[in-house]
């Protein structure tokens, strides 16, 4: 017996499973291997967060889900033929049941090889299918900002008229401003303080109904406050923060602030080469969100998790102090976070695997979603 309130999900990605909607992925940007003809996807590593990219692993491995066997490296771009799958782009128009759609889960919609006219068609369909919610995650927030701020009116409106003439009333782009749509959430992915400081300003300068950050894989501490200390927030600040009102560096003195982040996702890394996430990093992010009244979603521990997340006795198979990425040991990474944190402070982490590690943070799950209040500027 089916339950319309809890529809079956088409993806296992936790943050697409919003109540009353079906979680889904949609990948209209395809890449054909010029030598073998195999169809899959393509992307290019943007920073060290991409080292163990799950999408790249699936694409290289192939199998039932597809894949063209090509790694996501810039020097291999000539080995693939990139295309827009028109049938997949328009697929949401044929879905009646409301869905929360993770768009381009296998690549980045705003990578340089995706031309703006293709992106126009994606947003045109989103406008014509207002029953669905699109979640777009990019490591190229500057190009995303350029896309939305490059024209005086929504650039996707011409594509919308091509896909569905004005007489077609399947959808109406209500409450749009500068290309923003009420059913499109825009986010950027950053796993360290460096990428957060680099990416979030461009995101916050982009108009959207919901702006969010995915701190996954979290490979270092991330502080989303960046101004003068406020003792109420543990030494952080409240007047200028990524989680509240925010002004661009160099903005005019009387210029209005941008609204800060509406949602924060946090997660550790999975896979055989996964880097562990220090529990204090996740707790800090959770507490920052609680102090600023911003919804927090804890997606997963990944490969490594605290011992209390295990439902059976464990034998430590690897010490977190022994793993290294680019010659960084756990002690090296935590030293940059706190001068008082040493290898002896290493948390009780166990290599449990993603499934057993689960999603419990200090004994509870965090499945908070943002409320859509209208398009942000």
Question: Can you describe what's shown?
Answer:
- With 377 residues, this protein is α/β, with parallel strands linked by helices.
- Helices cover 21% and strands 16% of the residues.
- The strands form four sheets. The protein has a seven-stranded parallel beta sheet. It has a three-stranded antiparallel beta sheet with strand order 3-2-4.
- Helix 7 links the parallel strand 11 and strand 12.
**Mean model confidence by pLDDT:** 81
Q: Secondary-structure element sequence?
A: EEEHEHEHEHHEHEEEEHEEHEH
Largest sheet: 7 strands, parallel
The percentage helix is 10-25%
Strand order of the largest sheet: 1-5-6-7-8-11-12
C-alpha-based Rg, rounded: 21 Å
Number of helices: 9
Query: How many β strands by DSSP?
Result: 14
Q: Structural class, please?
A: alpha/beta
- Strand residue percentage: 15-25%
Q: Unreliable runs, pLDDT <50, ≥5 residues? A: 227-239, 312-346
Shape: globular
Span between N and C termini?
A: 44 Å
Overview features:
377 residues; alpha/beta; seven-stranded parallel sheet; three-stranded antiparallel sheet; 9 helices; globular
Concise description?
The chain has 377 residues and is an alpha/beta fold. It is built from nine helices and 14 strands. The strands form four sheets. A seven-stranded parallel β-sheet has the order 1-5-6-7-8-11-12. Strands 3-2-4 form a three-stranded antiparallel β-sheet.
């Amino acid at each position: 017996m089916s339950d319309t309130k809890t529809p079956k999900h088409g993806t296992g990605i936790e943050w697409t499973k919003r109540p009353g909607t079906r979680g889904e992925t949609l990948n209209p940007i395809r890449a054909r291997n010029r030598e073998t003809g195999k169809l899959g996807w393509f992307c290019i590593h943007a920073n060290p967060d991409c080292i163990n990219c799950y999408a790249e692993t699936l694409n290289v491995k192939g199998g039932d889900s597809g894949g063209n066997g090509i790694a996501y490296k810039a020097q291999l771009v000539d080995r693939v033929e990139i295309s827009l799958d028109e049938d997949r782009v328009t697929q949401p128009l044929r879905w009646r049941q409301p869905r929360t759609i993770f768009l381009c889960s296998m690549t980045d919609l705003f990578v340089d090889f995706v031309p703006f006219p293709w992106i126009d068609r994606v947003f045109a369909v989103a406008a014509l299918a207002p029953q669905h919610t699109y979640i777009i995650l990019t490591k190229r927030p500057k190009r995303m900002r350029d896309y939305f701020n490059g024209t005086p009116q929504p650039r996707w409106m011409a594509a919308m008229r091509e896909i569905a003439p004005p007489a077609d009333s399947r959808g109406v782009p209500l409450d749009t401003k500068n290309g923003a749509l009420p059913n499109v959430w825009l986010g950027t992915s950053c796993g360290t303080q460096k990428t957060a400081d680099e990416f979030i300003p461009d995101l916050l300068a982009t108009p959207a109904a919901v702006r969010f950050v995915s701190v996954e894989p979290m490979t270092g501490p991330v502080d989303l406050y960046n101004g003068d200390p406020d003792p109420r927030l543990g030494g952080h600040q409240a007047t200028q923060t990524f989680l509240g009102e925010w002004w661009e560096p160099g903005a005019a003195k009387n210029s209005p602030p941008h609204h800060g982040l509406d949602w924060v996702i946090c997660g550790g890394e999975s896979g055989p080469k996964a880097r562990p996430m220090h529990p204090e990093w996740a707790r800090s992010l959770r507490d920052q969100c609680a102090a600023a009244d911003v919804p927090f979603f804890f997606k997963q521990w990944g490969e490594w998790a605290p011992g209390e997340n295990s439902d059976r006795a464990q034998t430590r198979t690897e010490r977190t102090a022994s793993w290294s990425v680019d010659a960084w040991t756990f002690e090296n990474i935590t030293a940059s976070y706190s001068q008082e944190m040493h290898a002896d402070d290493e948390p009780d982490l166990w290599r449990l695997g993603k499934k057993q590690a689960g999603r419990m943070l200090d004994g509870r799950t965090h499945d908070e979603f943002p409320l859509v209040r209208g398009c942000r500027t």
